[in-house]
Write a structure and sequence with these properties.
Layout (H helix, E strand, L loop, with lengths): L12 H31 L3 H28 L2 H24 L5 H29 L5 H30 L1 H21 L14 H13 L2 H22 L1 H8 L4 H28 L2 H21 L3 H28 L6 H29 L2 H17 L35 E8 L5 H17 L3 E7 L6 E8 L2 H9 L3 H11 L9 E6 L3 H10 L8 E2 L4
Helix pairs in contact: 1-2, 1-4, 1-5, 1-6, 2-4, 2-7, 2-13, 3-4, 3-6, 4-13, 5-6, 5-10, 5-12, 8-11, 8-12, 8-13, 8-14, 9-10, 10-12, 11-12, 11-14, 12-13, 13-14, 15-17
Length: 547
């Protein structure tokens, strides 16, 4: 790759405004979490109830991520973001008033923190997918990395600010700060005049959108591999963060001050790593960056496990934080660049579910190892696991997708010869190809990929037949539920998909165009009723290459 980096996303005013507002929102959220945990130690001082605060905050992210992705792909993302900010603002105000009036109970506190977590779960996929709408494609990797900077700055400084605020003014003040933090992002959203692309078809229902998203994920090997790598990376890298308090207490013999220092070192490393993403992507391939990320995390965990010296541990944790953010942001960008805009929020949600699911599972497993053995053993096992993640690149490679054209292809709906509505269906489609004997192996190889694309974009019951009486004739058939779904299926085709279609067309005898037939399924009874009312025209094959 050329050693030239694209311009900074901060040169784009709307991104800059969003980034600053998002940083404020993250800070408020972290401060609120500190206030909630501290309040729970006062009103229900048991380990179980205190631990449930963290569960109530993070559980919605696991439960609602994919649902939120489907919502973000089906509706106006700006409106979704505004609704999420208003909901979290209102909930934070309620929590603040209850705490100020000393009317809060443990379960009310958990309910409020759970509700705010639900707002964040709705907000995040829409915001991350929105980044691709406000910055050009070459700037997207840096924009995603800088979003991670905002999160890590908040995570590094937020607990200290929250601790001071709670000590000085109580938990109600922390909840009030969180409520105010949402107003900055809300103001930017209300001021932003987003150009909403014109919809050619009705929006998908959320449940249908979730099903379509899962099918797209299952039929997209590149995204599937990236999500699996995200899960493995999250699992193997989770030990350091999960065991940070124990590292401070047992390996370094320190208390809250040491814990704050090593947490800050990890955050500083993460911020520094995020600032290097743009230049690394300009010089190295994705797999090379992921190799560096895993190597940094593995080495950092091993040094932390064996150090015992605060200064050396801080350096090793900074390296770990840098590698962690490189891995997280690189795989997030890989999924975004491999996903067309109509499904990008759902793919981001699946990738994040895989990553954070791996983090949750890894934290549990490494916690067990640390309990049965010790924290040093757990960190060394984590380091070894990260080396296995590096080796998994041979079977789960993450491809460079920056040059893949995922813009929509050109398609115009045909004009049926009979009256038809959007909900009419099912529709059976057949495409007749003429292929010379010598071109059959190449034709079948291309049709394997074509079948996957058809099914990925919504086709059902795809089949390929060969005519027994005319061996050069091949018939591709598939079904869709309605005429609207047939149009949606074709509009999902990208420019990259069209290139595959063109390769198939070059294999036709004499450059002939395949003959396409679209048939509406009609039961005999309904046909008789229609015939009694009016004379209908038969459905005629329409020759074209749209499929």
């Amino acid at each position: 790759m050329a050693d030239t980096a694209p311009p900074s996303p901060f040169s784009i005013s709307i991104y800059r405004s969003f980034w600053i507002a998002n940083l404020c929102s993250h800070l408020g959220y972290v401060i609120q979490s500190v206030g909630a945990a501290w309040l729970m130690t006062r009103i229900a001082p048991t380990p179980k109830m205190v631990a449930l605060v963290q569960t109530s905050i993070t559980l919605p992210m696991m439960m609602l991520a994919f649902f939120s992705g489907a919502v973000a792909d089906s509706f106006d993302r700006r409106k979704i973001l505004i609704a999420a900010q208003i909901f979290m603002f209102a909930t934070a105000i309620v929590l603040c008033l209850l705490a100020y009036a000393e009317a809060i109970t443990p379960w009310l506190l958990l309910a409020c923190t759970f509700a705010i977590g639900c707002g964040m779960a709705i907000n995040n996929p829409a915001w991350q997918a929105n980044v691709g709408d406000i910055v050009p494609k070459p700037v997207l990797p840096a924009a995603v990395a800088y979003n991670s900077i905002a999160f890590n700055v908040a995570r590094s400084g937020g607990p200290a600010i929250g601790g001071v605020l709670v000590a000085a003014a109580g938990s109600a003040a922390a909840f009030a700060v969180n409520a105010v933090s949402y107003t900055a992002l809300l103001a930017v959203l209300l001021r932003w005049k987003r150009e909403v692309p014109e919809r050619k078809l009705p929006a998908e229902g959320v449940l249908q959108g979730m099903g379509d998203g899962l099918r797209y994920f299952a039929m997209s090997p590149q995204i599937f591999r990236t999500v699996l790598r995200s899960l493995l990376f999250g699992l193997a890298s989770s030990a350091t963060g999960a065991l940070m308090p124990i590292i401070a207490r047992e390996l370094l013999g320190g208390g809250a001050t040491v814990y704050g220092l090593i947490l800050g070192a990890f955050g500083v490393g993460a911020v520094a790593g995020a600032f290097t993403v743009t230049r690394l992507r300009a010089r190295f391939r994705v797999e090379q960056i992921l190799f560096l990320a895993s190597l940094a995390v593995a080495c950092g965990a091993a040094v932390t496990a064996t150090s015992g010296f605060l200064a050396l541990t801080c350096v090793s944790l900074a390296i770990t934080g840098g590698g962690w953010i490189l891995g997280v942001s690189t795989m997030n960008v890989a999924v975004q660049l491999a996903s067309p805009r109509w499904v990008v929020a759902r793919m981001i949600a699946i990738q994040q579910t895989g990553f954070f699911g791996g983090m949750a599972l890894g934290s549990f497993l490494f916690g067990i190892i640390a309990t049965r053995f010790d924290v040093t053993t757990a960190l060394l096992v984590s380091s070894a696991a990260q080396l296995l993640v590096m080796a998994s690149a041979r079977i789960l490679p993450v491809a460079d997708a920056a040059d893949v054209d995922l813009d929509p292809g050109d398609w115009s709906a045909p004009s049926p010869a009979i009256a038809i509505e959007g909900r009419s269906g099912p529709i059976a489609v057949s495409v007749a190809y003429q292929v010379a004997h010598d071109d059959i192996p190449a034709f079948l190889a291309e049709m394997r990929d074509w079948r996957r694309l058809r099914l990925r974009d919504g086709a059902r019951r795809w089949q390929l037949y060969r005519d027994l009486a005319s061996p050069e004739t091949w018939l591709e058939t598939y079904r869709v539920a309605t005429w609207t779904e047939y149009a949606r299926h074709n509009l999902r085709r990208t420019q990259a998909d069209m290139e595959l279609q063109e390769r198939i067309l070059t294999l036709q005898i004499g450059g002939r165009r395949p003959q396409v037939s679209r048939m509406l399924e009609v039961s005999p009874d309904s046909a008789a009723v229609q015939a009694a009312r009016r004379e209908t025209l038969p459905t005629m094959p329409v020759p074209d290459i749209s499929g």
